[in-house]
Each structure stands twice: as structure tokens, then as C-alpha cells.
Queue: 2 jobs
Job 1
Amino acid sequence: MMLDPTLKIEKITKNFGSYLTLNIYDFPGKYDFKDATPSEISDIQNCGSMIYVIDVQDESFSEAITYLIECMKFIHKLNPKMIYNIFLHKTDAEAFAIDEKKADFVQNIKGAIKHEIDSTDLKNTQLDYHLTTVYDHSLIDCFSKVVQKVIPNINHIVSLLDSLMGNCKMQKVFLFEMISKTYLASDSAPVEPQNYAICSDMIDVVLDISYIYGVKSSKDSLGFDKQTQSVIKLSDSTLLYYKEIEKYLSLICIIKEQDFDRPFLIDHNIEIFRQGLNEIFKSSKK
């Protein structure tokens, strides 16, 4: 699949339920920050996180690193708190099939960037590295982690999810935005890629069934509401439990079948989580 290159700055406004709205700015690959307009400068000053994509199948990435450092120098003067996320993209190539080779490549990239940064005043900036490809769920998984860095009071949301998981004997729980399949938060345990992948696939199942059999109240309705729930049983007796929190925002929980003996108590705890989430976002808007 071929996508047209970005020729001008494009602004995308994304609503994550009614709780969160993010403005996403897509800059051309060769954008010259020296030509930034006052409006563009204001946008940069208000941004919390930046994604910089490096094509790892490009044999010479020195030019990409040089441009990254120039971008960071300009942005740092306007917004020293910016978080930088380096997406090492197209890691599906044969050269990265062996984990050891992949790790060596990442270390080479990190070393080259660190070498450039050490000669600047950018030493204390936060850089996070992510390996992505369009052939699995890694791109949205990594994007989710970027989004989480700009969500107000994210630690409180994680604490709520930890309480929900502990009270209901869940193995893992995600708070998903349904359309993009971005997860806004999960419990504090590390996210295993296969857990994210299987929950993401469940969203496809729920959307497909709801689109066919659900009752649509409006043109933009997905055919379900806050009463919608779904359970999928896996071959190892693990259950995936879907429960809507509000329009386009849902919980997906991973739980053992023997711990799903009283679903009404799980729903009660999810309702408590819903109320707590409302309070967190209300307080962040004051």
C-alpha cells in the first residue's frame, strides 16, 4: 500500500470519548522550522509529545538523524518539556528477523543519536524509542503509549485500573478507544504485545457484529451503547470481557473462566471505575 507524502502541515482533531480531545499535527518530512508561522510556533509551544519516524530500511539513516537533531534544537527553545518519541519503522524486513540483529540496530541508532545530542544543550530531553511495522499491531500499540504521556492524571487512571483488576481477579485490563483501537491506559503491569493484539482483535469482532445486528440510533452510531457487553472464550479457558464505558470508550478485561463466576460483581466494580474516571477528568479540566 502506497500513501501520498505529506506536503503541508495537516491538523487532525481526535476525540477519545467525551473525556479527551487531542490535536495531532502531521508535518512534512522536509519541513523547515525556520519558516514556521506564528500560528505554527504557537502549536509547537502547546504540544506535549512529538513522534519522529525513521525508516530502518533506508541503509543510510545519518541524514534522518541530522534532521532530527535540528528539529529538536528548534523545538527545545520553544518547548523544553517536549517528549520525543522515535519510531523505528518498517522493522518487518528480513534483516530484523533475528532479535539479536534487531537489538544491535537499535543500539546503533541510539548511539548515533546520543553522540549528536552530547554536543548540544539537549542532554536532559526525554527520548523514547519504539519499533513499529504495519504488518502487526505494534504501530497502534506504540502510538497508544505516546498518547498516554499527554493524558492528565494518567497515574490516577492506572491506579483505578489496578484496583479493578485486583478486586475482580483479572489478569489484564485495557481502556480502549474503539475506532482507532488506541488504549488510553492499562493496569500497571507491563503490556505484553500478544495481550494487546488479542484485545484489539476483539474490538474488530464486536464492531462487526454490532454493525450487522446492533440497533443504530443515529448515522454515526456503532450499534451499541453503555449496556453493551461481550464475552469471548479462548482455548486455554481465558475469557475476554468487553464492557462499554461510554460512547467509543470501552474496557476489555482478560480473566480466567473460574474467576468469572459472579459477573454482576465485576459489572459493579466497572461502574465504580466509570464513576472514578469521570471524577478524574472533571478535576483535570478545572
Job 2
Amino acid sequence: SWCVADQYDHAHEECGCVAQEHNWAIDCANLTSVLDAYGRMVMNNCMSSAECMGDGPCHEDYMIVVAHHDHCASHALPEVIEVGFHEFEDACGEGCEIGRQYDASLSACPTINCSVTVPLTDAIARLESSSCDTTCTGGCIADYHTLRAYHDLCHDVDGVSVIHDYEESCEDNECNTHTAAFNPNTCDEDDHDHDGDESDHDDHEHEHEECGCVAAENGWTIDCTNIGPLLDAYALLVKFNCMAGPLCISSPTCQDAYAILVAHH
């Protein structure tokens, strides 16, 4: 019942929300915070997943570096960060999500539909087969623009982090995903609307959460050699008529029993 989800708590979360939660700001005109963060990452050996897991100092500094790396113009950060940042990706995960700041000298990225990902997967395939990570010319530029659009605008689409493999070669071929300059420190995610319906948040508390984490939080284990707890959980689901949708959503007993059943299934 090992729980590793904390390492990726901020994946697909807006960087502006992470910044607000942890009291730092994204500011391309003042790079002191990102330089300090990167320095600490090197000093603290944050390339080790054990160090970068969870919400400890390494992960916090990684969020600061990711936010500035992905948001600021390609030439805004020192080369040591632009290049060295990628050495930490395997240990620290995808990081938070943020779009690149508007640049009046660039053309617009293509219009995309986040619910239709075929153009994205096709573009990534061509970028790889054409070795666009080495030379970004011709068709590489158009495919990179497609990848940039999905990366900046579609926060729940998997695979967009591959853009980091092409940012260096395509740094002179960027495009705009916004039509004007925007404030990167705002937080628009529904997950952070704390004035909303708290019960709705609780109803879906374990959605997409790792079963190992749910087990650790609620004091049970996943053990395929001992199905006693599984049988007990199923009996509870029947006893309390948890098949009734509203009851299973609102009852902690039903939710916990169902989580045990799902984990073992």
C-alpha cells in the first residue's frame, strides 16, 4: 500500500495556484527567487527522487523553477537554468502548468481543441521522427507550435511535458497562446474555490487518487493474500444499500468500503 502520489500533487495544477499556496510570485523581471531556488536544488541534491518527493524544500524549489522556465521568454533565464532544469525532471515530476507570456513579436499559435488530441499525438510523433530536438526547421516549427498550444492551454492533457525536449532547438520559433500580456499569479482552478460547496469537494475527494494513498489515509491495506477485509467491505456495501448513488457519495462508510473493493479488484 505504498503511497507516492504526493510527489505529483501539483501535476496539472496551475502554477499561479501553487505560488499563492506557498507565498511566492512568478516574476520574469525579477529572477532572484528562481536563481535562489535553482541554487538550493543543486546544493540539496534534488536530482534524487527521495529528496524531491512530497512537498519538501526540493519540490517547492522545483515548482518555482518550473513556473519561471515555462512562463518567461526563452532567453530570459540564465542558460545554466534553461539547460540544467531538465536534469531534475525525472526525480521531481511534471511540475505545475502555466502558459508562456505573450510576446508581441511572435505570431499566434494554432487554434486547438483540448478534447481532441489527435493533432497533438501526430505532432509529437513527427517531432520525434524528424529529430526536431536537434534542428527545428520546416515542418518541425508547425508541429512545435501545435505542441506549444496544447501545453499552454490544455492543463488536463497528458504528454505535453515532452515540449521540454524541443524547447532548446525551437527557442527561436515560439508562438503566442495568448492575445495579450496576462498575470501569471492568478488562480482560476475550481479546486481552489474555497468559498464553493465543500461537500462537493468531499464527495470526490478520492477521485484519481492512488489506492495506496487512500489506504494509508484510512488505515487499511491492499493484500491479495488476505481477502477478509475485502469480503467485509462488500458486506457493508450491501448492508447499507450503498448501491444507491446519493448514499454512496455522501456516506464515508460507503466510500471507504467501495475504495477497498476497487483497490483489490
